[in-house]
Specification:
Number of strands: 5
Number of domains: 1
Structural class: alpha+beta
Distance between the termini: 24 Å
Number of helices: 2
Radius of gyration: 12 Å
Strand content: 25-35%
Helix content: 25-40%
């Protein structure tokens, strides 16, 4: 899994198989190593985050901080997505 960055003990990463056609841009968050059932966060065209699910059961205050960090680094996330997948679509 391409790791974008870490936030404490949480990994922020892409899943390598994002289906065909490619899903809209999003990241996964898991405590420790990536898992198939991790928290999923959509990245909007304006660089904001929308929580798709919190399957990792990250505490709300920690999840808010992670989402703020993702929003602050949304350009890095978008560029990493483009570099890895070669195309991009947005959820909204």
């Amino acid at each position: 899994m391409p790791q974008i960055f870490r936030f404490g003990e949480y990994w922020i990463y892409f899943w390598t198989n994002e289906n065909k056609p490619l899903e809209p841009i999003h990241i996964h968050v898991a405590k420790g190593a990536p898992t198939a059932n991790a928290t999923k966060i959509w990245i909007t065209s304006t660089g904001n985050c929308l929580l798709a699910n919190n399957n990792s059961r990250i505490p709300n205050h920690t999840l808010r901080n992670i989402m703020r960090m993702i929003e602050a680094r949304h350009n890095d996330v978008i560029q990493a997505w483009l570099n890895y997948f070669g195309e991009i679509r947005y959820f909204c």
